[in-house]
Amino acid sequence: MHIGQICTSQATHCTRDETVQGAALLMRRHHVGDVIVVDQFDGASVPVGILTDRDIVVSVIAPGLDPASLQVGDIMSEDLLTARDSDDVYETIEKMRLRGIRRVPVVDAGGSLAGIVSADDLLEFLAEEMGELSRISPWQQAHERRARQ
Hints:
The protein is α/β, with parallel strands linked by helices.
């Protein structure tokens, strides 16, 4: 299965010149814990970073800085792992595991933001897969009972 089939297509995003306070308000409005930071190129929104609620707390609130005076580009994480919407789910999980990353922006073939996939999305997908596996044995047992009658 491709990651584009399970990602959330409505990824909250902003540009790097947005204030940290503005980004926090976006998170609040959309009930999310991150915003994808994008640069605009020829109408495409290309992911260049990510800002999480934890980044705001650790980098702005804890040291007592003013979130209205800082831009997202000042504190965003730039070491960004992205996945193409055509990437395999299990390969994406492995990349996330190796880098210790819980959220990954998903891009289309042109590199434009197509969505986001989180560890929670992947856990839900894997739980459904495990549920399907758990139904094999009872089905097989019922089939054998019918075949032996």
